[in-house]
Amino acid sequence: MMMTTLKKGITILGNGDIATPKGFKAGGLHAGIRKKKLDLAWLYSEVPAVAAGVYTLNSFQAAPLKVTKESIAVEGKIQALIVNSGVANACTGEQGDKDAYKMRDVMAEKFNVEKHHVAVASTGVIGELLPMDKIEAGIKQMDKQTQTSDMFETAILTTDTKEKRAAVQIEIEGKTVTIAGAAKGSGMINPNMATMLSFITTDATIEKEALDVSLKAITNQSFNMITVDGDTSTNDMVLVLANGKQQHTPLTTTHADYPLFEEALTYVCQTLAKEIARDGEGATKLIEVHVTGTAHDESAQKIGKAIISSNLVKTAIHGADANWGRIITAVGYSGEAIDPNQVSVKLGKITVVNHGVPVAFSEEEAKQYLEQVDVSIDVNVGDGPGEAYGWGCDLSYEYVRINASYRT
């Protein structure tokens, strides 16, 4: 297993996946929901795992979210997860609710777990009913001995072009703790969740309250700081499962190793978030925005979101056009109080605005920089302690083609 060691005791597992933490298994198969692609995924823990989730802010929350929330509410634990792609089971009324509960019940029977220990997720076309005969048959085919986690990663995808994974290890009380995750998301992506599913596993022992606190805070620094197209979906979910198979003292917010756990979980979430942004529908470039100098982090987050959500910024980056006016325009309409005379902007290392005044720069050099697949925009608005990172992608002709014929 390839490994790279980061500072502060975090080791990246180059080949780690969602089933790397002790006690987890995962897989996927083709149930026939989609024509050819894998479309039904499962995740299983040997023991019920402490669970924390965050969900879309869209008022039309899909049936699977309702079921998953209810499952977690019983005792705060999940042991099995069932995910289908191809059909979102959103805006499907009473029948959609019944189908989501049926998925949970059949999964519980197959894996011999309590119904309230099963989480359900769906992604795909909104407004269509699930083909429950195919899903039930697919669940009955699942075999936790032969299927693999790469099949899980593939089965949850829709318009994504690649699988998304991340894994790290840390040491807690002499025990090697692993945190790993898989995600899907490519279009209908906007800060405050998106058409995005992200599932994270860990063999750490942690109290639910501490896991809830961590996930909510980290989501605001990762999944809530990405955008592809400004649309917030009906099915978004981030679910973290901690099964405690590495039996150290339970982590609380006051535990000495809690900050290390949070940092490692942050790395996994931000890596998955960036991969979602990088794989945006039709995208050719990942855009990273770094905002500094605000009064507090929340202000920097709002400014960053305004920049990465701007279609004018996104199209300029796609065309390798150093049109910095679009960036400061987004800063200006972010709703945050700023002094225009304090704003400075860099494209990579190229300064284009300094304290509100344009700076002469080489258009050719800037064009060459913006033609790279990774583009960074640094915006400083003052000398305050607040800062934030955000990630998005360029907006291309291909995005229009994909979404003009999404259902055909």
From TrEMBL:
Belongs to the ArgJ family. Pathway: Amino-acid biosynthesis; L-arginine biosynthesis; L-ornithine and N-acetyl-L-glutamate from L-glutamate and N(2)-acetyl-L-ornithine (cyclic): step 1/1; Amino-acid biosynthesis; L-arginine biosynthesis; N(2)-acetyl-L-ornithine from L-glutamate: step 1/4. Its main location: cytoplasm. The keyword Amino-acid biosynthesis applies. GO terms for cellular component: cytoplasm. The record marks 194-195 as: Cleavage. The record marks 123-124 as: Involved in the stabilization of negative charge on the oxyanion by the formation of the oxyanion hole. The gene is argJ. Heterotetramer of two alpha and two beta chains. This is Arginine biosynthesis bifunctional protein ArgJ. It holds the Pfam family ArgJ. GO terms for molecular function: L-glutamate N-acetyltransferase activity; L-glutamate N-acetyltransferase activity, acting on acetyl-L-ornithine as donor. Catalyzes two activities which are involved in the cyclic version of arginine biosynthesis: the synthesis of N-acetylglutamate from glutamate and acetyl-CoA as the acetyl donor, and of ornithine by transacetylation between N(2)-acetylornithine and glutamate. It is an enzyme of class 2 (transferase). It catalyses: N(2)-acetyl-L-ornithine + L-glutamate = N-acetyl-L-glutamate + L-ornithine; L-glutamate + acetyl-CoA = N-acetyl-L-glutamate + CoA + H(+). The active site is at residue 195. HAMAP family: ArgJ. Keywords: Acyltransferase, Amino-acid biosynthesis, Arginine biosynthesis, Autocatalytic cleavage, Cytoplasm, Multifunctional enzyme, Transferase.
